[in-house]
Amino acid sequence: MRTFKDIRDYPKYWAECFGPAPFLPTSRQEMDMLGWDSCDIIIVTGDAYVDHPSFGMAVIGRTLEAQGFRVGIISQPEWQDKKAFMALGQPNLFFGITAGNMDSMINRYTADRKPRHDDAYTAGNAGGKRPDRAVLVYSQRCKEAYKETPIVLGGIEASLRRLAHYDYWSDKVRRSVLCDAKADILLFGNAERALVDVAHRLSRGENIADMTRIPGTAVMLKKVPEDMKEIDSSRIDKPGKAMVMPNPYVTETACATDKGDVKEEAPKPVMVRPSRHDAENSFVRLPSYEKLLNDRILYAHASRVMHLETNPYSARALVQKHGERELWVNTPPIPLTTEEMDYVFGLPFARVPHPSYGDAKIPAYEMIKTSVNIMRGCFGGCSFCSITEHEGRIIQNRSKDSILNEIKEIKEKVPGFTGVISDLGGPTANMYRLGCSDPRAEKNCRRPSCVFPKICEKLDTDHKHTIDLYREARELEGVKKVVIASGVRYDLAIESPEYVKELVTHHVGGYLKIAPEHTEKGTLDLMMKPGMGAYDRFKELFEKYSKEAGKKQYLIPYFIAAHPGCTDEDMMNLALWLKENDFRCDQVQNFYPSPMCNATAMYHSEANPLKRVKYKKRDDLFVAKGERQRRLHKAFLRYHDPANWPLLREALISMGKRHLIGDRPGCLVPREGTEAEMTPAQRRGSSRHGAKRFATKHPNQPDIRKPNQRSGKPAGKKPTNGKATPQGGKPKAHSNAGGKPAQGGKKRPAGNRSRQAVR
């Protein structure tokens, strides 16, 4: 079993004598006020500096400060030259580089690759305050400023680009960001443990080039360690004859998988037995960057193998050649214990933006300033989402006392607190204290999801801890209401009707967002999402308990258009379901291929990496590519918009579905010429008596609700991938796929989901 050192057990660095700063300094003047002559560590971030535990630079900065280091912040520097990167002088130990809470490319561009003009993580919501591929640009400028200073990469942008990866914006496979940035080391995932280790070792005078075996890190090497055995990836999951590479070190046969893995259409969970090779003394060689450049099937194979090696207790290190050098990716970081999580979230955060921003609003902060992150990680494994690849599949929980203490702190520190806690959640609202009931199985399991295609029988689904937390939180003095804004995993919730009752009775502000994502089984299987039967069961419970509570409350389902494997007919059937249920999308989001997730490998390879991929006799996957095809899939979600009717009529005719055009109840779009007969309000789809409205967007995009102008309370709940709001007092669209505010709505930050900077 892999051992680790508790992050609280390191001896403090000598600069501990300065004590915690009110804010981590962002200027020389602030350093002088603190009595500092220099910084030990400088964090360069693409976000505005908010000293709140939902912002990565604050979490890692305060964590390092608690270890005794003097930490400075360079926030959203002018990147055209090196001067801004010299504002705090040369750090004694290293520069920590992060693009911010979001990937800089997703933050900057829509799913159609069009630039945005706003940024929820910037004061005044101003766009253009960070460069494209911010990690690369910031690293270059730091090297120009102080060539000999080590550079440590981190955050979600670096984490998801730690290997050779498909880049949607350039439509090609790019090298590891570590290679391109020419940095010294990359930290991936929740990297507090690795970060603290690196900082203390540097402070003791160790060379960063010697730090090659730290879990949760990646480094570039001239050659791989000679004391470890090499296992070629083709021996784990052979893609075809073209990939057979005999390996003299390998003595075992290929790992066993489910028997139906290849033959059945629906993808099966990967059931790989623990390797007889000691994970401490062996590593897996992935195909080189150069081989992946023009071989999509090989890319799908590499992605599949990478996803097999994600268990922090049994995964093996990965190696991938880039030119003449070897990219060495160590095993994933060991999750923080509850005591360590309490330590991190109990640090002295000011919980407000840095005073230098004055009265300028930072939308991401406005959304989450009264929210509490109760856990990290997600064992859902949805193929379109990168949370699991970043935060891991094992849930890291805070204690109930730590969470309640933070709520008390919010009452004291957050200006204008109205008594409403806007969220108790994380990547998912209801995975708190859930996990594998068999510790031995958990340490050896390689399943990408604990809930697909069905909930694992070893998964503890008892929501009692979450229920107890909700009850105690709302009983705290000064707390009027606790809203649950993180997405609810409804297939888990229906395993605990008591939880659904508690949620619906006390913690829904009229609207609750959930994520069916689609209605068709083939697409849902590729998404690794449950069928609509689970949605229907949850809907029954939701409506039952809402009625018992005497409340009119509504579910807000959200969906994804143009997901890999989703055909035109699948989208048509989804549109028919929406119409039958009287839902309308105001603004919709096409699938956004973010780095490293399984669905991105599907998009690029047009193959299914959830199954063993082959060169021959493989099932090619339909992928909606090109502007017209993706526009058509969005149009199906907005079947009610007259602007989409010509495109939909043309598509329905070509599909042989002409009977769905007309004025009959079962038709999807009206006959040609109907547009001229509509009122302006009908053409806009803004009729007072219109159908239930919702919007869809990418899960990694912000989704911020606009506070009520008078009370300061959040306006109704807002969905992320497709939101449904009912008739009568229904809100209109909140945020679009591109993250632009719509009709009073604002972007919601990745906040509780992806708050990592160099961690």
TrEMBL record:
Xref: SUPFAM superfamilies: Radical SAM enzymes
Query: What's this protein's name?
Result: YgiQ family radical SAM protein
Question: Which family does the UniProt entry place this protein in?
Answer: Belongs to the UPF0313 family.
Annotated ranges, domain Radical SAM core: 364-632
Keyword Iron-sulfur applies: yes
- Annotated positions binding [4Fe-4S] cluster: C378, C382, C385
Q: Cofactor comment in the record?
A: Binds 1 [4Fe-4S] cluster. The cluster is coordinated with 3 cysteines and an exchangeable S-adenosyl-L-methionine.
Which InterPro entries does this entry report, sorted A to Z?
Elp3/MiaA/NifB-like_rSAM (IPR006638), Methylthiotransferase_CS (IPR020612), rSAM (IPR007197), rSAM_horseshoe (IPR023404), rSAM_sf (IPR058240), UPF0313 (IPR022946), UPF0313_C (IPR024560), UPF0313_N (IPR013704)
